[in-house]
Design a protein that fits this description.
This protein is α+β, with helices and mostly antiparallel strands. Helices cover 22% and strands 22% of the residues. It is built from 10 helices and 20 strands. The strands form 4 sheets. An 8-stranded antiparallel β-sheet has the order 2-1-12-11-10-9-8-7, sandwiched between helices. An 8-stranded antiparallel β-sheet has the order 13-14-15-16-17-18-19-20, with no helix packed on it. Strand 14 and strand 15 form a beta hairpin. The longest helix has 15 residues.
Length: 453
């Protein structure tokens, strides 16, 4: 871990959170550029003044962050050709009820399958785990599939079972071999491995604690069983941002981060959506991806900026959990007291390959600007509007393919000889150097009278 001048400020903020929120213990880590730049802990794991101090190596239960790891395991099945995201889940698990005929693997991954959130029996998080056969009556629809975001713990139990059936062994063994070990997440386990924290609840009006149960969740375990440390979750955050092709192809890793279903709160602008096994957070226009987690006695969180690689992980052994602001505060303190190093501008050799297409363009009368980006990529923006409209990556045939927004997956092709392209074809739309340029082979033609009063 590299040292940071922000350490005293970060330590103080974490200690303040532990004291003000009355948490038995809390641990956190910050990652930047694939490296943990700070980690810390506050409090004692049993909440006693003379109890064992928490450290960044203390294990906590991570709850629903388990789902993100399960999603990677399912996408590995996709990469291996064993499953397609469009497959009906009953193609692989025919024992499921016929009412699930319209539910796809992708809908389960994106929390849009419409399944009930919880089991029909006792509160599964506080009860001994049940078998897959016992769980089957709980796998039932609450909404039509594909219509809305509806978070379902049961749905991820189904995805864990999918991994077991396709790989022929327990889902955790598969993920340990295919995901956790390759990422160096050696302190992430199915059950607690010392040093670990017990799950506690703090009385709201007195300084007393209540021990929470910690059952093996059985068939529901893929929804929230795993234990981990802030350091291991920092490695997972780095994977989400930078990738590891030994674990998951880049196309599928990026697909995880596409907002698929919006978590709609009436009267509010959206701040959270769901991708494939990941929350997508919209914080003042900056995207973060990750997941939260809770089980009785524990709260957990991991968030990382896919653009910068700045990320935060938090773990605590309290049912009440920390305040919502602490994760963002830690990231802001790091940037305030240890700003990210600014990379000097330099020329790009790839820029010469796109010099003929960059510049001002018009879609009808609407002006746009096409600029080069590293790696021979292009960025299309509208002057006077914030952000970019889309990014394009070069293809082997001399075209570019959109990666974002309206133009994701669409082709951009330049036409014309010479040092400057005469016009662009963008998904059949025509972009011209001048508005309605008659020399641009404009579909529908240009008014013979040209621009007139």
């Amino acid at each position: 871990m590299t040292a940071t001048p922000a350490t005293p400020y970060l330590d103080a903020r974490l200690a303040k959170e532990q004291q003000q929120q009355r948490l038995p213990s809390i641990a956190a880590a910050l990652v930047r550029g694939g490296q943990v730049v700070w980690s810390g802990a506050a409090g004692t794991v049993d909440a006693r003044a003379d109890g064992p101090a928490a450290t960044p190596e203390t294990q906590y239960r991570i709850g629903s962050i388990t789902k993100s790891v399960v999603a990677v395991g399912v996408l590995r099945l996709v990469a291996d050709g064993r499953v397609a995201v469009t497959d009906p889940i009953r193609r692989h698990l025919p024992e499921l009820d016929e009412t699930l005929d319209g539910v796809s693997v992708l809908q389960l991954l994106t929390q849009s399958a419409g399944l009930h959130a919880e089991t029909t029996g006792p509160w599964w998080e506080r009860s001994p785990g049940i078998t897959w056969e016992d769980l089957l009556p709980s796998v039932r629809p609450a909404h039509d599939p594909g219509r809305r975001f509806h978070y379902s713990n049961v749905g991820y139990a189904v995805l864990g079972r999918l991994i077991e059936v396709e790989r022929g062994r327990p889902w955790f063994e598969v993920l340990q071999e295919e995901v956790l070990r390759p990422l160096g997440m050696t302190r992430t386990s199915y059950d607690a491995v010392a040093p670990s924290a017990p799950g506690l609840a703090v009385h709201p009006l007195t300084d007393l604690v209540h021990t929470e149960p910690a059952h093996d969740a059985g068939a529901m375990a893929p929804a929230g069983q795993l234990w981990s440390t802030v350091g291991d979750l920092a490695r997972f955050a780095t994977f989400l941002q930078a990738g590891d092709t030994d674990v998951l192809p880049e196309e599928l890793r990026r697909a995880m981060q596409v907002p698929t279903t919006v978590v709609d709160t009436p009267g509010q602008s959206w701040t959270r959506a769901y991708g494939i096994g990941l929350d997508v957070y919209n914080r003042d226009g900056t995207r973060f991806v990750g997941h939260g987690g809770s089980m009785p006695g524990f709260q957990a969180g991991v968030r990382v900026d896919p653009e910068t690689g700045d990320g935060v992980t938090l773990l605590t052994n309290s049912t009440g959990g920390p305040g919502a602001a602490v994760a963002w505060d830690l990231l802001e303190l790091l940037e305030q007291h240890d700003p990210r190093r600014v990379t000097a501008w330099h020329t790009e050799t790839d820029a010469t390959d796109v010099a003929h297409v960059v510049g001002g363009w018009h879609w009808g009368p609407r002006r746009m600007e096409l600029r080069s980006a590293p790696g021979g990529e292009l960025e299309l923006s509208v002057p006077g509007e914030s952000g970019r409209w889309s990014r394009f990556v070069p293809a082997a045939d001399g075209t570019w393919t959109g990666t974002e927004d309206y133009w994701a997956g669409e082709t951009l092709r330049a036409h014309g000889d010479g040092p400057r392209a005469a016009y662009l074809d963008l998904g059949s739309f025509r972009l011209t150097r001048d508005p309605y340029d008659p020399a641009a082979d404009l579909p529908g033609g240009a008014d013979p009278a040209g621009w007139h009063a």
